[in-house]
Design a protein that fits this description.
With about 140 residues, this protein is α+β, with helices and mostly antiparallel strands. The protein folds into 2 domains: about 30 residues, no CATH class; about 110 residues, Immunoglobulin-like (Sandwich), CATH 2.60.40. About 35% of the residues lie in helices and about 25% in strands.
């Protein structure tokens, strides 16, 4: 709700149809019981450097993974249309749809949980901190 209000304020959205459009967009981002969602922000402070990198990162949203232990690699589902022919967006909304087995693995803190990007022009990995992981695990429901 606060994100929608923030967007309305920032973009000066006052017409009901435009407000409903924003609500519909944000509703699509709400994860299901077996999903985690995230916003991936490409942040480069230098505008000139950012302009050089965005064309190199086309399709980056297709190469985002959640790895759990050695057995589970969940590819992100992404909002289409964020990458164009000539560049990608700086903001991508991704979701990870987990099977019951993957949910159990995610809740098992003895297994590492890593967010990874495996794009040809950019590779990165980040381990999800235990306290963040516990909070996320509470949102996952086993059928």
């Amino acid at each position: 709700l606060f994100q929608i209000q923030e967007m309305m304020r920032a973009e000066r959205i006052v017409h009901e149809d435009k407000i409903q459009q924003e609500i519909d967009i944000y509703n699509e981002l709400i994860p299901e019981d077996n999903e985690l969602s995230a916003t991936m922000l490409i942040e480069i402070d230098d505008l000139e450097v950012l302009r050089q990198w965005l064309p190199k990162l086309i399709g980056i949203e297709e190469q985002v993974w959640l790895r759990i232990g050695d057995r589970h690699a969940v590819r992100a589902l992404y909002e289409p249309g964020r990458s164009k022919e000539d560049k990608t967006s700086t903001v991508h909304y991704v979701r990870f749809r987990l099977s019951p087995e993957e949910i159990r693995a995610f809740k098992d803190e003895s297994l590492p949980a890593v967010l990874a990007i495996a794009h040809e022009n950019y590779r990165a990995e980040a381990t999800i901190p235990p306290e963040v992981r516990r909070s996320l695990a509470e949102d996952l429901v086993l059928p």
